[in-house]
Amino acid sequence: MRGFLLVMLSLLLGVECAQEPVPSALERAERLIQQAQGAQGAERQRLLEQARRSLSTLPMEVRAPIERHIDRARLGGGAGALRSALREIESYQATFSGSALAPNPDEVRAQLRSIFAEPDMQPPPKPFYERISEAIGRALGAFFRWLNRVLRGLGGAGAGGWGVVVQWVIIAILVLLIAFGASYLLGRLEWRRVRRAPSPLSSDELLDARLLSSAEWRALARQLLAQGDLRSAVRALYLGLLRLLHEARLLDYDPARTNWEHLMRLRSPTLPDPAVREQAYRLLQPLTLRFDYLWYGNDTATEQDVRQFEAAFETLSRTVRSDAQRVA
Asked: What is the pTM (predicted TM-score) of this model?
């Protein structure tokens, strides 16, 4: 939807772009996705990968929404994800057709207003701890304004220079008390937020290692194992391994990259600690191959698989730097 919005804005402002490669790339992707709808197993994965590659020549704002639907389908999103990808392609094909080259500005503005009114375009709600921080800030501002009025009245009552000194001493004490209290409360809220038990995620949500910390991914894997969902438990442990590398600043995790692209990034000469990254590469290479068979090849996961990934998690936890900072 955002890609469609950018294309419409470009057309409205008269920005010229090369349109010849776009329709042909969209047609190739559409044909491959339609073939993938009737395919199964490895053949389906191959067609989806070809469809994703056929979009590589398109601008980011055009290909990104389609690639997200294709990735969902590759990760078990089912026919619904492929239908969504086809709808995105049809929308872009209509945009780049001859009838859409010179749209009516009033119609474009109406479409933009309807797009901005959709729930997906609304800003996400602020986290609870952020709302609490803002409320505390407003309350402190109101309190200091009231305190300033009170102390100004006391100073004018006739204490001379000592009245001003007393005012500042009282203000300093109150500021320190309030700062310590606010720091303690916010620390408790953050601690509870970090230590919360991760809630179960759906198959569509088991895509982005940034959703949880490495420790939370491992806790989630144990929950899934207790529920008997061995396949999702392996997926959670693999995402936890990627997240652990990201937290240790050994890997710049990007959900748009494939697992094998992340693996090759471990050998990038621009990243620190090449020896540790090489050790991590050798640890993850067989796990990535086994994970592909389990997740994309629909092999049956076993408790031995879970133990293998847990052992790798333990090994990697001991290998990475102990002073690594947690990153977003």
From this structure: 0.40
**Cα dist from 46 to 36, 52, 70, 289, 302, whole Å:** 8, 10, 12, 16, 26
Give DSSP secondary structure letters for 294-313: HHTS-PPP-HHHHHHHHHHH
Give the lowest-confidence range in 78-87, 225-234, 277-286: 78-87
pLDDT single digits (tens) 235-269? 888 888 889 888 888 888 888 888 888 888 888 77
Find where tokens 């920005």 sit: 15
Higher pLDDT, 298 or 290: 290
Q: How far is the CA of 186 from the CAs of 132, 138, 189, 193, in angstroms?
A: 9, 15, 5, 10
Contact call for residues 243 and 217 (beta carbons, < 8 A) = yes
Q: Which long-range contacts (CB under 8 A, 24 or more apart) does 25-29 make?
A: 25/54, 25/55, 25/57, 25/58, 26/58, 26/89, 26/92, 26/93, 26/96, 27/93, 28/54, 29/54, 29/55, 29/66, 29/85, 29/89
Query: Do the Cβ atoms of 316 and 287 come closer than 8 Å?
Result: no
